[in-house]
Amino acid sequence: MLARLSGWGRTAPTVARLVSPRDFEGVADIVKKSRERGVIARGLGRSYGDPAQNAGGVVLDMTSFDRIRRVDADEGLVDVEAGVSLDALMRALLPLGLWPPVLPGTRQVTVGGAIAADVHGKGHHVAGSFGDHVRSLDLLTADGSVRTLTPDGEGSALFWATVGGMGLTGVVLRATLRVVPVETSYFVVDTERVADLDELLERQSADDDRYAESVSWFDATATGPRLGRGVLTRANHARLDELPKKLRHAPLAFDAPRLFTVPDRLPSGLLNRVTGRAFSELWYRKSPTRSGRVQNITQFLHPLDVIGEWNRGYGPRGFLQYQFAVPFAAVDVVREVVGRISASGHVSALNVLKRFGPGNRAPLSFPMPGWTLCVDLPVRPGLGRLCDELDDLVLGAGGRHYLAKESRTTAEAVRRGYPRFEEWRAVRASVDPDGVFVSDMSRRLNL
After folding, report:
1. Once rounded to an integer, what is the mean pLDDT over residues 391-404?
2. Smallest Cα–Cα separation from 335: which of 210, 177, 218?
3. N or C: which end of the chain has fewer CB within 10 A?
4. 258 pLDDT band (50/70/90 cuts)?
5. What's the pLDDT at 297?
6. Where are its TM segments located (predicted)?
7. How far apart are CA 207 and CA 210, in angstroms?
8. Among candidates 367, 379, 363, which has minimal Cα distance to 159?
């Protein structure tokens, strides 16, 4: 059927033929018959921009391929189809005392999407990104054949081009993932409220390696001596003996309530300087310094998942998530970006600052050793000019943008930010010389 599709930011919807194949043979048939506008796979649509859209072409809805085929608890491996959501995977693994090593900020992502974006989480400084834990994957290529790829040996170049490749090397059908044992489904959380950005950067750099998960929120509306004040939250998986007695009877329980769903009738402009400052003040005040608090998965990792379709809160014009990474030596760029956003009149309430560990072998994988910062900015006049200014700072410092989040950058910015881009492009051309796999993003950025 014809469908109007957009990313999570809701900024650039387009119309495509949305097809839901019944089996993998059906996927291959559609790919082989694709015409000039090509085809792209789509999961749960949580990329913020346009990588899972294909104006005038075909979009493959992969969510029906949602079988968990096998769990090997002894070896710490799980064999899944690409349409399995991380939410479903967690629900299946936790009763067995197992856990995916990498989870992004939402559980509503498919395994195929997590591979295509090489998603990361609050634990990248320890666990790396999603692709680091993929032991093999089955990739349907442009000629309709299926190749089983592993991180090493024959086919490894295509494996790593697929990890972070935004679906442009083929359709991931199935994957074997590494999982790790846990005693409980809870975290022991330490929270610190800090007075300004310099203190936040200093505290987050001090002893992050003691924690499996680490993230900070900062106030993007504060100015002057309070610029970038924030809340640093770090945690480790709770052991059974660390749980309060009332939780020990079901230590692997998974509590994931949905409080309400945002209606699709809200106007743009609800987040403005007044409401943004009020929210930021409330968020800062509600998070006093406290150590050893036990929180469940949703409280710590996925607080926004309790609100259905929360992106509608930005209104029909949508919002842009600006996320970048810069090397540790370029920490002054983080300070400058926060200062410019705070002074710009553009408002962001959902702000994240994290430290990345080493990257992996994927040419288009986003994480690199350094700082990553992201802000959610409602679309309004002048936003493009602000982002262009931020681009100059980020790229000038050897940084880059996250392809799963961006929706407005340029082809030149991608090439500057990803020095191995041409290496990736050569691998892609070798398996898809006619450009069968194509998306609105790939056209926009000349990928």
Report:
1. 98
2. 218
3. N
4. confident
5. 93
6. none
7. 6
8. 363
